[in-house]
């Protein structure tokens, strides 16, 4: 059986307490988003970008750096993570399709944020979302998939900056945990103000809550920083 320590040496992962951190092989990772650790009977994986642990394990097995047979355990002297073959198109497509299916399911199950615990959460943080057209297009999911369980989340939809095509989502749990993106977000924004409100100027910043707070409180030359979109800067 493979151990987390063996896998860490092959992948060049950095240790953080009882866990290791590295770039996730199941998606194009600009910065390390995968953690793994030694469980009671197997290595456990968690990708903060939302990749399914089954996809991660499948890709590692296909690369030949992870297996169930002790004889196939990775050998750090013979393995070079830089020379590991990339996942096949089929692997990437399957992982991408599964993630997009989850994105669409969450969007279908969510409701408009008005009158929900999500609106109250933002209001208590000094953000009156009712002052933004259509509440910024934000939605509420009372049992949004989150890690190994579910929790109430505010949902924002990313769309392509130029074409407006829907892409991934922004999830803000109201239980105190940090927000996370799910699905493709590169080159995308959360359109907190609709396109028809964008005429002579547009504010783009990082982070949905940061942009909302700034747009409702800060003025420049006597004018609030509106309209505004939130981007995922990497």
If you had to describe this structure to a student in words, what would you say it looks like?
The protein has helices spanning 4-11, 53-63, 89-109, 117-124, 208-217; strands at residues 14-16, 19-22, 34-38, 43-47, 111-112, 139-146, 149-160, 166-173, 180-182, 188-190, 203-206, 219-220, 223-224, 228-231. The chain has 234 residues and is an alpha+beta fold. The chain folds into two domains: 4-87, no CATH class; 110-231, no CATH class. The strands form three sheets. Strands 5, 6, 7, 8, 9, 10, 11 and 14 form an eight-stranded mixed β-sheet that branches. It has a four-stranded antiparallel β-sheet with strand order 1-2-3-4, with helices on one face.
What is the subunit arrangement here? single chain
Q: Show unreliable segments.
A: 69-81
**Overall pLDDT, averaged?**
84
Q: Secondary-structure element sequence?
A: HEEEEHHEHEEEEEEHEEE
Strand content: 25-35%
Rg from alpha-carbon coordinates: 20 Å
| Spatial gap, N to C terminus | 36 Å
């Amino acid at each position: 059986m493979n151990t987390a320590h063996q896998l860490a040496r092959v992948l060049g992962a950095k240790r953080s307490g009882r866990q290791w951190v590295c770039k996730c092989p199941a998606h194009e990772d600009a910065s390390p988003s995968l953690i793994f650790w030694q469980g009671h009977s197997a290595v456990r994986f968690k990708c903060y970008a939302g990749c399914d642990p089954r996809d991660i394990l499948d890709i590692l097995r296909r690369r030949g750096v992870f297996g169930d047979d002790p004889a196939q355990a990775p050998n750090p002297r013979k393995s070079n993570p830089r020379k590991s073959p990339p996942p096949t198109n089929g692997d990437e497509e399957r992982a991408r399709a599964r993630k997009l299916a989850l994105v669409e399911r969450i969007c279908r199950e969510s409701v408009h944020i008005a009158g929900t615990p999500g609106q109250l959460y933002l209001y208590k943080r000094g953000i009156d979302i009712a002052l933004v057209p259509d509440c910024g297009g934000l939605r509420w999911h009372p049992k949004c998939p989150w890690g190994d369980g579910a929790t109430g989340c505010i949902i924002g939809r990313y769309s392509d900056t130029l074409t407006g095509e829907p892409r991934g989502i922004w999830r803000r749990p109201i239980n105190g945990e940090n927000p996370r993106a799910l699905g493709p977000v590169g080159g995308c924004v959360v359109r907190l103000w609709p396109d028809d409100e964008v005429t002579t100027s547009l504010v783009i910043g990082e982070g949905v809550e940061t942009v909302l707070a700034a747009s409702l409180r800060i003025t420049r030359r006597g004018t609030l920083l509106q309209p505004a979109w939130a981007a995922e800067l990497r």
